[in-house]
Amino acid sequence: MSAGYKAMTQLSVHPFDHEISQTELKQRLVSFAHEIGFDSCRVTACGFAPHAHEFRNWLGQGGHGEMSYMERGEEKRCDPQKVLPGARSIVVLAMNYFQGGHQGGGTPAATGRIARYAWGDDYHDLIQSKLDNIDEFLREFGGQQKCYVDTGPVLERDHAAEAGTGWHGKSTMLINERLGTWFFLAEVLTTLELPPDEPVPDRCGTCERCIKACPTGAITAPHRLDASRCISYLTIELKGSVPLALRPLIGDRIFGCDDCLAVCPWNRFAQVSRETAFLARPQTAGVPLRDYLSLSDEEFRLLFRNSPIKRIKRRGFLRNVCVALGNVGDSSDLAALERATADLEPLIAEHAKWAIQQIRFRHGISPSIGKKTGLIQNAPQSIESETVPRRIQNCYERDFVCKSQTSDSF
Ligand code: B12
Ligand code: SF4
Ligand code: SF4
Fold it and tell me: Which strands make up the sheet holding 145-148, listed edge to edge?
């Protein structure tokens, strides 16, 4: 029995029960959404996106960088009626992913930072299945729905602000008084008319912490983000070479960036999510950056199975690892980087060469030292380089145990 169906029966929803009022339907929907794991469920009328104009300006100024999908859906993104003709309401859902704590280090070698949203399983898959439950629920009342979680032409934060899920922060993050910034958004466009909720007031006040904290100056003014400078874009969306001028500013971030979120004072109220799928994966906690360089395609896929990181593939991930090593690595990373300069993927080889130059420059190592002593070319693989494949093996074994326990219990 699916979680959705179980919850529905507990709520005594009757198929095609058109007798209930819109208010009661909404109450049942909100309870159902909480029951299946959402932390907020609010409604707004399905109208034009209030900041469509700003969105178009942003595109016109190239604020989207190479994210051509943002241009392709321009008309639909501004007008949800073009996405689902006849839609009356947008149900806006939010799911907390805050795990508490910090990312574990635990090794003397340089490790990389991954944005919180990518510590655990891919939220797209997890939330999409819950949206299917909501769709199923609303169909029982005669609604037709289209559901999105970062997956469609919808200005999600605009409709979420209209529904009062939060307010537009100066960082462009939507902020919720209770959840802070650490939550995902999802929307269900429906032909059903549901009573709308009220927006909430902007509570940024005079604060500008996010703007000051951004390492690349990507927040060019309150509510304006130049994506092509944002580390999240550079490490996730950008497919090719990372611009040389921006590489040093990326620091040790290897997937996404949380700086403008982490400094937001509203996060002091954030509670740990009840969803355990977002917890950090032990197999990537405290991995020395240089160890990632030895991953084959197959090992990369296994290590990041069901993780958002799999989306950038080995090519994009190892490119990021090289940039981070260039910024925080030392002479003990040179051997692994030297090997990476021979990678069959030119993007990785180019970034590895850059990283070597950076480390040598920072530590005053002459290019001839490694060659003369054989220190670099003949250096053995680091001890840690064994750990990644071993971790993959461990996670396989654990998975197998978990799966067999689950099937035993049925
Ligand atoms: C493209 C994209 C990106 C791009 C560009 C980000 C951006 N700010 O546009 C990049 C790759 C950089 C990115 C990064 C991140 N992203 Co992103 N991203 C998106 C995506 C697909 C579209 C965003 C969009 O429409 N941008 C267009 C520009 C114009 O919109 P905007 O900057 O958000 O501005 C809005 C408001 O600020 C407002 N606005 C504009 N001008 C003004 C002026 C005033 C006065 C006011 C009040 C408002 C206002 O209108 C705009 C439209 O709503 C959405 C999913 C979706 N379909 O909506 C996820 C989404 C926004 N991302 C999300 C997340 C989690 C992130 C990261 C935190 C991931 C990470 N840790 O690395 C970072 C955060 C960076 C940041 N400060 O935004 C979440 C945000 C949840 C939340 N609580 O806000 C979303 C909603 C995905 C999801 N379904 O959960 N992302
Ligand atoms: S995610 Fe990082 S780089 Fe992007 S705007 Fe926020 S602080 Fe700046
Ligand atoms: S850091 Fe300050 S200005 Fe930025 S979003 Fe949070 S409250 Fe608003």
Answer: 40-45, 89-96, 183-190, 145-148
**pLDDT at residue 397 is higher than 60:** no
Q: Which of 391, 389, 373 is nearest to 381 (CA)?
A: 389
Q: Are residues 301 and 275 in the same domain?
A: no
DSSP 299-363: HHHHHTTTSGGGGGHHHHHHHHHHHHHHHH--GGGHHHHHHHTT-SSHHHHHHHHHHHHHHHHHH
Mutate to test the pocket of ligand 3, among 167, 181, 208 (most ligand atoms within 8 A of CB): 208
Ligand nearest to the CA of 235: 1
Q: What is the pLDDT of residues 283-310, one digit of tens each?
A: 888 899 999 999 999 999 999 999 999 9
pLDDT at 389: 54
Q: What does pTM read for this prediction?
A: 0.91
Structure tokens at 13: 């929803």
- The number of the ligand 2 atom at minimal distance from the alpha carbon of 261 is 6
Same domain, 263 and 330: no
User: How far apart, in Å, are the Cα atoms of 94 and each of 48, 165, 180, 265, 329?
Assistant: 21, 8, 11, 20, 38
Domain C-terminal end among 258, 279, 300: 279
pLDDT digits (tens, 9 = 90+) for 100-130: 987 655 577 789 999 999 999 999 999 999 9
**What are the catalytic residues?**
150
Please report the pLDDT score of residue 366 as a whole number.
81
- My answer on whether 303 and 183 are in the same domain is no
- The 10 Å CB-count burial string (b at 16+, else e) for 269-280 is ebeebebeebbb
- The answer to whether residues 95 and 239 belong to one domain is yes
For residue 372, give its domain range: 288-410
CA distances from 272 to 262, 268, 279 (A): 15, 11, 10
Q: Is the confidence at residue 155, as pLDDT, over 80?
A: yes
| 263 and 355, same domain (yes or no) | no
Question: Are residues 74 and 136 both part of a single domain?
Answer: yes
Nearest ligand, CA 167: 1
User: 133 and 208, same structural domain?
Assistant: yes
Residue pLDDT, tens place only, 216-236 = 999 999 999 999 999 999 999
